């Protein structure tokens, strides 16, 4: 059983960038305040404010219109991750300039 598990898990983990899902997941969980697995616009705005990233109403709505692929008004983890991947450079800069205790830098893989 253990060997099966190891054979199954290890090659998969070795093949992908193991860092990325973790930090995206951490950020997603930080934004998903009520823990229902999706982030709505209210949670995004509140979450970004709490993280000290004042993107402003327009930018936050843009994240939604761009990121919400299936147009259900919520960002699930896949949509969120895809958006971050596409916009990571910009997000990284936002984090970098506002990060005070380096938590976010760790999140963004710095
Ligand atoms: Ca939620
Ligand atoms: Ca969606």
Automatic annotation (TrEMBL):
TM regions (residue ranges): none
CDD domains: EFh (cd00051)
Pfam families named among the record's database cross-references: EF-hand_7 (PF13499)
PROSITE patterns named in the record: EF_HAND_1, EF_HAND_2
Entry GO terms, CC: cytoplasm
Source superkingdom: Eukaryota
GO molecular function ontology, one term from the record: calcium ion binding
Protein name per the record: Solute carrier family 25 member 24
Organism: Homo sapiens (Human)
Organismal lineage: Eukaryota, Metazoa, Chordata, Craniata, Vertebrata
